[in-house]
Specification:
- The protein has a single domain, classed as L,D-transpeptidase catalytic domain-like (Beta Barrel).
- By secondary structure, it is an alpha/beta fold.
- It is 33% helix and 17% strand.
- It is built from 6 helices and 10 strands; from the N terminus they run αααααβββββββββαβ.
- It starts with a helix and ends with a strand.
- An 8-stranded mixed β-sheet has the order 3-2-1-10-5-6-7-9.
């Protein structure tokens, strides 16, 4: 009898751990969503996070922080993030542990091989995360796709969570989130030169759609560089700022489709931002030449 009671209690405790895991990962889904939550005005000179409109729903409000997925896509967005973000943290931690055991920085090829081994060890969770991402993006496209004005959108890339948000600049909210991979360089710093295996970042104080030095150009509607794994659309990260001349008018770093379907949620590229082909096809329909791009650490 005691054994039965203990087993029930232990089982309930395990369920609580599973439910709480997204809240313990760094950064947590709630912390990511908090970036877009409504609330009191900031008391500093830092730019305010995007503010959401108040929901007109008659249902009781949730105790969780309100996130970027407003209205019809809220449920699918949170379901995706609750699996994807913990997955990326586990994989990134294991990659860093392996790197710490190495005496020198490995080559791109060795870094890629190491990343693939780590991802394969978590393939079940990866497949679940991609399935939820597909459902969320389909939910967005089905419910909101026709309402998006591409002249009033921006892209918000958050490297720490391996996500790019398609933002609605008129309401300061996110329409949808897309999983990504980016530059493989172990130090995760901002790009400073062509070929350094890093992904650029909007400098501190320039991380809003108004202040960022980056914008989308060119827009490539087919395969930008198929021999280099750049397929199914390309969105160049360009800048007119001389600090970023190495971007070469958007041809050095692009958001593009990738044939490597196991790279999402990792640092895997030469510096570009990789998406699944079916995901960038959706995103491509909702940006224009000149769409602002914010990239944060």
């Amino acid at each position: 009898m005691h054994t039965f009671i203990y087993s029930r209690v232990f089982g309930a405790f395990c369920l609580l751990l599973v439910a709480a895991w997204p809240l313990w990962a760094e950064p947590t889904p709630a912390e990511v969503l908090d970036m877009f939550s409504s609330g009191a005005e900031a008391e500093s000179n830092q730019p305010l996070p995007p503010e959401l409109p108040v929901s007109s729903s008659t249902e009781p409000s949730s105790p969780e922080p309100q996130g970027p997925f407003f209205g019809p896509t809220s449920e699918s967005g949170r379901a995706f993030l609750s699996v994807y973000i913990p997955y990326t943290r586990v994989v990134e931690t294991e990659v860093q542990e392996r790197l710490a055991e190495m005496k020198r920085t490995p080559s791109y090829e060795k870094l890629s091989a190491m990343r693939r081994k780590v991802v394969q060890a978590h393939s079940k969770t990866y497949k679940q995360a991609v399935k939820l991402a597909n459902a969320h993006i389909l939910d967005f496209e089905t419910r909101l796709g026709e309402q998006v004005d591409s002249t009033k959108t921006s892209l918000f890339i958050q490297k720490s969570t391996f996500l790019v948000f398609l933002m609605d600049d008129t309401e300061n909210r996110a329409f949808a989130a897309f999983p990504i991979a980016y530059g493989v360089h172990p130090d995760r710093g901002p790009k400073s030169d062509r070929g350094d295996l890093r992904t650029p970042e909007s400098p501190a104080g320039e991380q809003t759609a108004v202040t960022t030095p980056f914008f989308a150009h060119p827009l490539v509607s087919d395969d930008p560089a198929p021999d280099n794994g750049c397929i199914e659309r390309g969105i160049g990260v360009s800048s007119s700022d001389s600090r970023f001349d190495f971007l070469d008018d958007g041809w050095t770093v692009m958001l593009h489709g990738t044939p490597d379907r196991w790279c999402l949620g990792t640092r895997a590229s030469h510096g570009c931002i990789r998406l699944l082909p079916e995901h960038i096809r959706v995103m491509f329909n909702h940006v224009r030449d000149g769409t602002k791009i914010v990239i944060t650490p």
